[in-house]
Amino acid sequence: MISVKELKNPHVVRRDLLASLVVFLVALPLCVGVAVASGVPAELGLVTGIVGGIVVGLLPGSKLQVSGPAAGLTVLVYEAVTEFGLATLGPIVLAAGLLQVVMGFARFGRWFRAISVSVVQGMLAGIGLVIVLGQLYAMADTAQPDTALAKLAGLPGLAAEIVTDTEAMTAFGLGAGTVAVLLIWPKLPARVRIVPAPLAAVGLATAVAALAGLRPMVADVNGLLHAIDLPGAAEFGNLANVAVIGTVLAFALIASAESLFSAAAIDRMHDGPRTNYNKELVAQGVGNTICGALGALPMTAVIVRSAANVQAGATTALSRVAHGVWLLLFAALLPAAIGIIPLASLAGILVHAGCKLVPWKEFGPLWREHRGEAVLLAVTALAIVVTNLFEGVVLGLLLAVVKSAWETSHVQLSTRELTGGRVVVTLTGNATFLRLPRILEQLEKLPQDQPIELDLTGLRHLDHACRVALENWARRHNHAEIEPVTIRR
């Protein structure tokens, strides 16, 4: 929230307003690009950016984090719109927002910090790969296949079309030029980098297309109010569909995880007040509830805009609120400006954003130092590409739980023989079903013609499966006229 004391300081106000302009220039092309890639009208991306700036910006949680439509939800939104229709997107986002509010008041925000980092990185990497595969087709103004595997298989055909079709080659050139500008821009002098890279890339591509007389595909712009479609009772009735409920859960969980992980990253970039995770979760939920009521895209905290906000010198929430005001003024006064931007250029921005979601540099060291975490990351990412976002993330979470259980269920088995021939077998550590094969293999090697005592007093944990298995082994072990196995707990 913005305090009155902060607004009375002209130095703070001036600095934060300047920072808000930087964030606005970064957010504008991303709002439009994410909307187009999600298969919805471009204006709806601006609506979400406006709500994320003005509404969420005024709520407590994080002072410097900036919210809006995110590339991380592009795949899920596209799937939802394709399967259930654009009219159902609003109720899905609204329900997901209400769920986030409930989770925030129930103090679930801190639990998102317990999600395996490798699963989150794998989720973002999988999303990034799917975005890149889809937007390569958009860069050539070509229809993309429905599934990620089909997009991957169609790349040779896409390359052939770019080489042989003049229009596809022209569009792809604009998209590739956009990516090139984004890569080169950080290396240019500081006075040039005053203009944010995404805005410069889109502006240059638009100028080249206009000056060269090119006619690439552009967004269909009808105005902000025309794009807003308030959902009705029939659309809300779709929430009874099991598949829609699954999508709501996916929206809420993934948007929450992305927002709170972004908050953790932004907190490391500044020395100001730390994020209150539960309040931030409520704020994100309120924002998504309003976006859903307006039929707009879902929102998350966006690391690109948030980092730009911090780097521009912002110290209060005024910068993120003001950036929402600039988006509103642009959408109200200059909506036609969106209609001259080549879609191939917006696709180039998304390709660049998708590549940045994949942790290329971090994977090598992770593989060398924590191979299990690297496998978890890779499996989650590939599962998202092969199946879909929800199933891939669920698989990653399940694998993380199994990996954690396996690593914590260490158990040691030792044997010693006492005078008189009695064998004492001692188990220590944590005995779970994951270690049963190893435990039973060692027990079955024991002699069957000597009395055995099984000492379980050193176990910190013995689960039901292990207890039953050990009792069954004790009953059947001695088949001769020997004293039966005794178990000491």
Automatic annotation (TrEMBL):
Topology in membrane: Multi-pass membrane protein
InterPro entries tied to this protein: SLC26A/SulP_dom, SLC26A/SulP_fam, STAS_dom_sf
Alphabetical list of SUPFAM superfamilies matching this protein: SpoIIaa-like
Main location: membrane
Protein localization: Membrane
Transmembrane domains' residue ranges: 17-37, 84-106, 118-138, 168-185, 197-218, 238-261, 281-304, 324-353, 374-402
Keywords: Membrane, Transmembrane, Transmembrane helix
Record domain SLC26A/SulP transporter: where: 14-380
Alphabetical list of PANTHER family matching this protein: SULFATE TRANSPORTER
Name this protein carries in UniProt: SulP family inorganic anion transporter
Source species: Streptomyces cavourensis
